[in-house]
Amino acid sequence: MNFTKTMIVAAVMVLATAGQSLAELKVVTTISDLARIAEAVGGEDVHVTALCPGPRDPHFLPAKPSLARKLANADLLCYNGLELEIGWLPLLLDKARNPRIKPGAPGDLDCSNSLEHILDVPGGNVDRGMGDIHALGNPHYTLDPGNAVLIARGMANRMGQLDSKNKAAYTARAQAFADAVSAKQPFWHDQLAEARTKSIILYHSHWNYFTHWQELKVVGEIENRPGITPSPRHVQSIIDKGRDLEDVMIIAAQWDHQEVAEEVAERIGTALAVLPGYSGAQKGTENYFDFIDRLCSRVAEAAARIETVPVKE
Amino acid sequence: MSNNYRRLPLVVMVALVLFAVSAAAQTSSTSTGVSRLMNPSISANGLFLGQVSRDNQDPGANGIFLQEAEIQLTSVVDPFWTADLIVVWAQEEDGDTYDTLIETAALRSRSMPAGWGLTLGKFFLPFGKHAILHPHQFAFIDAPLAIDEFVPGMIDVGVSVDTALPLPWYSELVVYGTDGQASVFAADDRDLAFGTRLTNMWDLSLDGTLELGGSLVSGPDADSHLTGNNKRNIFGADITYKWSSGSLSQGPAVTWSSEIVIPEPDCNATGNPFGAYSHFQYRFGRTWWLGLGGGLTRDKSVYENNLETLQGWNEAKINVAFVPSEFSAIRAEITYQESHDSSYDDLRFSLQWNFTIGSHPAHRY
């Protein structure tokens, strides 16, 4: 009798758990930043999976069919857009065979549509002689927390359309996320007060939203044409430029070619800040706020030690 | 009447203005307006080859050639279909003339019930790993002997359905039926060809995958007038390991791919034909690749005056490729080939360069 009761209770619990998991909105994001924002907005009402792990450069994610399996059951696909995922997302969508998230379907959410301003939209003619240029503008907008707030609101709106009974909860969580960002803004701003007095050389234009948000002064890029290995001549010109400036520092992502960034920093005699490209790219940056904290603290540290780095001839 | 004449210039002017407005409206709504956004993605490839052979004196084996040019158009047709059109101008063996070939003209749908995919039209038959590639995707300049000898020109008109199997790993099944006119069959009769391919893939780590595939195709025998055999079955199996650095953008990467092709022997034939190859590629710099490859074929039946002889070949290759971007590459390659009975061998040096312009779809994994 006890055995029968136990089995019934177990069966009810399994069914209840199954029902709960079925009720969850299955959200797949392309990059880890979007996953963290989706988790903040969706809370316990969603299950979120990111296709591109934090440590990997999303420009070059291999379109592994196993990733298509993640898309096959998704109710909502949140992607960065602005052609960041153009090399792999169309292939995965084709393999996923999921009409709920195909372009134009309710489960298709291009998060760049939530933005108010897109940086680096090229004017005039665009061709591949300029490198692997993003013709629709710089796609690395999640590095500005203000944009993260807009994305959270866009996600809440779409999650509410797909799961109307939890619409109020999604809206409330998006507002809580916005409030948390507002509360942190003064801290982040103050942290980079010294860095704002320095000049900055970027490895790649990945950091333009971050530097724009923090009003940092960018004076050049090591990778003068996106996605193309910089020529020795250009690297030398950047070194010369850095030596001419009084206070200059270098910013690179952890997936950039460190030996080039290190050489430029050593030969100028300045500090190099190696930053996580997206949340989860380095240990301790899995949370979006921790990620932005890390960006600010690393840049602040580098700005503080510019003077102490010797010049290598 | 005179009033009407006086009004005539005014009427003509109004008519001209209306015509101009109408023409402008038509222009903006067809050739330069929304319709331009509806144009397909258009891309082109050019593949050039400079080659010198130690022993082969054929004009096609020595010289500088436009090896192949390709134009590809891809577009969503409507809510139900996507279409691909690929036209190729490929160099003939004489090195001077070009064959125009429609490689692909097909509709694809991923909106079928229960997650099935459907392809209708002319397409590459999904046999193995290499027979489905365009030449600019090859790991080496030429296709492996196993592919060239036993499954060349695997393109046909027909229908294909595919689905992902409900297994804990990625498993895709493709089943197709075609007209039986692929060059490996090329039979002058009304028989059809049928085939299937099963692809399985596992993530060994975040950065590495292992793929195992099996293929079968059955169609009318091209040599049936010699062999009396009406059907030709070809089996294939392949294994591919891929790894690329997850922590470094365009960092080190490895691809190792091997494949075996086993055609059913001709009726009354005496051998056990098969072909195999193994290719290894390593990205050792951001823009540099090294390739090593080897392959063989055995017991291919060749008929002269209705007399059968069995042929076999061995080959080894090494190449270095400079790939400054995904849109261009230059490769230098040395190829050694010998007949299995050691009656003939050859050494070839090749330099190949290619470009891609326009909106070219990303290549499959």
Main attributes of the structure:
heterodimer; A: 313 residues; alpha/beta; Rossmann fold; 2 domains; four-stranded parallel beta sheet; 10 helices; B: 365 residues; mainly beta; Porin; 16-stranded antiparallel barrel; 4 helices; 12% helix; globular
What is the CATH topology classification name of the largest domain in chain B? Porin
What's the order of the H and E elements of chain B?
HHEEEEEHEEEEHEEEEEEE
- What characterizes the major β-sheet of chain B? 16 strands, antiparallel, barrel
Number of strands of chain A: 8
pLDDT < 50 runs, ≥5 residues of chain B: 19-31
CATH architecture classification of the largest domain in chain A: 3-Layer(aba) Sandwich
Query: Superfamily at the CATH H level of the largest domain in chain A?
Result: Nitrogenase molybdenum iron protein domain
Strand order of the largest sheet of chain A: 2-1-3-4
Q: Fraction of residues of chain A in helices? A: 40-55%
Query: Can you tell me the number of structural domains of chain B?
Result: 2
Radius of gyration of chain A, CA atoms, in whole angstroms? 22 Å
How much of the sequence lies in strands of chain B comes to over 45%
CATH superfamily of the largest domain in chain B: Porin
**First-residue to last-residue Cα separation of chain B:** 78 Å
Strands of the largest sheet of chain B, in order across it? 1-2-3-4-5-6-7-8-9-10-11-12-13-14-15-16
How big a fraction of the residues of chain A is strand?
5-15%
Total tally of structural domains of chain A: 2
Low-confidence stretches of chain A: 11-22
Radius of gyration of chain B: 26 Å
The largest sheet of chain A, given as strand count, sense and whether it forms a barrel, is: 4 strands, parallel
